[in-house]
Design a protein that fits this description.
- The structure holds 2 protein chains of 2 kinds.
- Helix content of chain A is 28%, strand content 26%.
- Chain A contains 3 helices and 5 strands.
- Chain A starts with a helix and ends with a helix.
- Chain B has 10 helices and 10 strands.
- Classes of the chains: A alpha+beta, B alpha/beta.
- Chains A and B meet through helix 1, strand 1, helix 2, strand 2 and strand 5 of A and helix 1, strand 3 and helix 2 of B.
- Strand 5 of chain A pairs antiparallel with strand 3 of chain B.
């Protein structure tokens, strides 16, 4: 399954930007029309990031809708799935715009300990 | 993929050059250092495996309910948020664009042939190569998990071919094609057919740098496939309906299938062929010739003329 290949890309991109810090949390934006299943990503994430700077990190997935226009009533249609209907009930909608992205939005990395933080903890 | 732990066994792709018989490995993955032991990973509960859309990482006022409140809050307020806004497949897409540029500069038409296993991609290629022999220069990149069967079949036609074995991989990637293009060194004004791993799901996600994806669907697979696998049909410019010689023997409604394909992708072109009897292949060869000539740009033209020619060329290849 290709979700593993996707996670490998995520590990590479986040590791590049994290430097020596451990990654604690990764936020992805996955379009509803993207060829990736969030469940499958969650399923293999923990194992796939073992031994990497992302080990133990939390994966958060934000779903991004696509947009279209109804050919019958001209209303804007926000699509949460491939075969969406307009609010008027029509399935005749224009080809979707957007909603097929697969992006790393942001990540949270572990702080590098400072003198202040060490003093407070001890 | 290992069915116990889900890892890819540290698998890398193997490329076999059918001309020399030499095989070499490309693209080792990070999993090669993963200790491949089938012990329990203790990950039966994915406590953080849920989708939500609140800005958790930026809100430091959420309540804590454990003893070390102040330390936790202190460390939490120091976690560093890094905004990436980066396409996950940026690396693959970058390599794909590089492949695309390389191919375009040599006026090479690269097509990414996708389908379920057994739809007839290799048979169609064998027939195409034999029929167009002498009139069109074709080389072939074969993708399968294992064996060089397909590349050997292509080699038997006298055509240059290279086999990529992905091991456990379910799709080809741009990096694999980049390596292989160097190996193949296809001539200018030629066609490179990339026969992807038989799979109607995963290859849709991975741009190889091709000019177009061509999806092959056989009439023995069911007319509803375009709706069941919409991403692949949406990503393809042409659908070749193969094995039409078998229509009298199967309950396959051609009109319904074409309707479904257009529902998913209004712009997809459709050709009906039989790679074994030859029916409909003239249309496929005409499509190939149009795509190849639309690819070429007269480098002596002015910038404006190049733009017009490019647009006209694209329009031509869209019409059957």
């Amino acid at each position: 399954m290709h979700e593993l290949a996707v996670i490998e890309s995520i590990v590479e991109a986040c590791s590049d930007h994290a430097g020596n810090a451990r990654v604690l949390h990764v936020t992805l934006e996955i379009g509803v029309l993207a060829c990736v299943t969030p469940d499958a990503l969650h399923f293999c994430y923990d194992i796939a990031v073992e031994g990497t700077p992302l080990e133990g990190s939390e994966l958060e997935i934000l779903r991004i809708p696509a947009h279209s226009r109804c050919l019958d009533c001209s209303s804007e249609v926000v699509m949460y799935e491939m075969f969406a209907r307009c609010a008027c009930g029509s399935i005749n909608i224009e080809p979707p715009r957007g909603g097929d992205g697969l992006r790393i939005k942001s990540m949270e990395i572990e702080p590098v300990p400072t003198r202040d933080s060490i003093a407070e903890v001890s | 993929m290992c069915t116990t732990c889900g890892c890819s066994d540290g698998a890398a792709a193997t490329v076999t050059d059918m001309l020399t018989g030499k095989a070499y490995v490309i693209g080792a993955h990070a999993h090669e250092q993963h200790a491949h032991e089938h012990h329990a990973h203790g990950h039966s509960e994915h406590s953080h495996g849920h989708d939500h859309d609140h800005a958790h990482s930026h809100d430091h006022d959420h309540p804590h309910d454990h003893a070390h409140d102040h330390i936790h809050a202190h460390l939490h307020s120091r976690t560093h948020s890094v905004t990436l806004e980066q396409d996950v497949l940026a690396k693959n897409n970058r390599l794909a664009e590089r492949n695309r540029g390389w191919l375009e500069s040599r006026n090479i038409l690269a097509l990414n042939l996708v389908s379920s296993p057994g739809a007839g991609k290799t048979t169609l290629l064998e027939r195409t190569i034999r029929d167009l022999s002498g009139t069109m220069s074709i080389s072939v990149v074969e993708g399968d998990q294992e064996t060089t069967f397909d590349a050997e079949r292509i080699r038997a036609t006298g055509c240059r071919s290279v086999q990529i074995n992905t091991g456990t991989g379910c799709h080809l990637e741009a990096e694999m094609l980049a390596h292989v293009l160097k190996q193949l060194d296809p001539p200018a004004d030629s066609v490179v057919m990339v026969e992807n791993v038989g799979n109607l799901v995963c290859p849709a996600l991975f741009d190889l740098g091709e000019q177009a994806k061509v999806v092959i669907l056989s009439v023995t697979e069911g007319a509803d496939k375009p709706l069941k696998y919409p991403h692949m049909f949406r990503a393809s410019s042409l659908m070749i309906l193969n094995k039409i010689d078998l229509l009298p023997h199967v309950a396959f409604d051609v009109d319904t299938c074409i309707d479904y394909a257009h529902r998913v992708n209004p712009d997809i072109e459709v050709l009906q062929v039989s790679a074994t009897t030859g029916e409909g292949l003239a249309g496929w060869y005409a499509w190939l010739r149009r795509a190849l000539s639309a690819n070429s740009i007269d480098t002596n033209c002015s910038d404006d003329a190049i733009e017009v020619q490019r647009e006209t060329g694209v329009a031509k290849s869209q019409n059957v």
